Amino acid sequence: MTSIRHRTLTLIIGLMLAGLAVISVFNWHDSNHEIAEVYDAQLAQNARLLQGVMRMPLASKEHAELYQAFNRALGEAAPGGDGHPYESKIAFQVWNRKGEVLVHTASAPSFTTPPSTPGFSDVVDLNNRHWRAFMLEDKPTDVRIWVGELGDVRSELVDRILRHTLWPNVLGSLMLVAMVWLAIGWGLKPLADMAATLRARHSGSLEPLQLTPLPSELEPMQAALNRMLAQIQVVLGRERRFIADAAHEMRTPLAVLRVHAQNLLEAGTEQERRESLAFLISGVDRTSRLVNQLLTMARLEPTAVTPVPHTIDLTQTVRDSLVQLTPWLLSKNLELAFDVTDRPLKVIADAAAIDIALNNLISNAANFSPAHGVITVQLDQADGFYLLSVEDQGPGIDEAERGRLFERFYSRGNVQGAGLGLTIVNTIATRLGGRITLVNRPEGGLRATLSIPDGQSRTPLQRTTRELPPNA
């Protein structure tokens, strides 16, 4: 793409040339008109002067002598004489009523018949020369006076005027282009300085730009660059934190996997090999869950790109998630009950985020539920929120630990946990504009409730309770 200077200069030169062309056309038209008016007036005036001479009260013999004197004097103005070159381009003739030429210049054109139409006219003589002429009939003396000039007299004058006006304009335009070039360079110098500063910065430098003095037009650009640099810093910080977290949390599981693998190699009996292999598989599963949780946390970071929330059916979203989780819960000898209204519940949210939150809440409940326990999922409404609750029959939580349950990598009494489940749920709740609460149930167990803004007023829900079939 061309530079700003080239684009601006091209536009200015184009406008200047267009303006010069318009002015030149106007000058040509105006010069033609004014010169034609002046020269036509001179033709008419010369004809009137000749008319006055022809009306002199002289005898016939004296008139003949006057005509002869006119012809002798006008003959001295023939081409190649001592007069002006233009004399040969200006002519006049006088005819009597019989069509006889009384007076004429040496350069007078030849006509087959004398012109008879009074006034101005454009005529062509026998030599194919174009004349601008004025014809005057004098009734008292019964003569016709014709005064004319060659057409190139006027065109040469117009060309000379145009040359004298056009060349200064062209030279002035070239000088103006040079000055505009320098002026544009001076005006764009702050932008060039900013570009030079950016090129001179270290590739890893993310400090904000502080260019002073800075034109007001470049202040939004500097602000935008600084915002982008700040966002890059946040993204890099998030990536460094993710790498640090992953490295910290993966160190122990990998070491454990290595121990189990070493035990498998050193096992002396089939029973020992099976136990070591079971420990190894369990460690791999825990590491896989940890990796998935870390990736989920990375996707839920505030700077990560997430889908735009839209209107979804919360009932159907929860039901679809539970259908996917039911086989896994049955494999752990757990039952699942879903307590919710039968009609659709519309909410503006991200279905994937709700699915992740519900998966983590149920996984957490499953980890602390006794064998053949029941995990109940409820969907209710109160105070402008939909309340998605997951209840288990586990030991509940210690009030002293409540403040730490949402910390990263804090896992209470679950050696297989990564300590990220409730952190992920809390992050999702915040992004949805809701909250997550944990309450011990009086009959035992824990109730985890995810509050989601409903965005509108609703009537109390008509509830139905049922247990999902094992093959759901």
Quickly give the structural class: alpha+beta
What is the overall pLDDT average? 76
Could you name the CATH class of the largest domain?
Alpha Beta
CATH superfamily of the largest domain: Histidine kinase-like ATPase, C-terminal domain
**What portion of the residues fall into strands of 2 or more residues?**
15-25%
Counted beta strands? 13
Overall shape: rod-shaped
CATH overall fold name of the largest domain: Heat Shock Protein 90
What does the model show?
With 472 residues, this protein is an alpha+beta fold. The chain folds into three domains: 155 residues, Beta-Lactamase (2-Layer Sandwich), CATH 3.30.450; 81 residues, Helix Hairpins (Orthogonal Bundle); 158 residues, Histidine kinase-like ATPase, C-terminal domain (Heat Shock Protein 90, 2-Layer Sandwich). Helix content is 51%, strand content 17%. The C terminus is likely disordered. It has nine helices and 13 strands. The longest helix has 51 residues. A hairpin with a 5-residue loop joins β11 and β12. The relative contact order is 0.07.
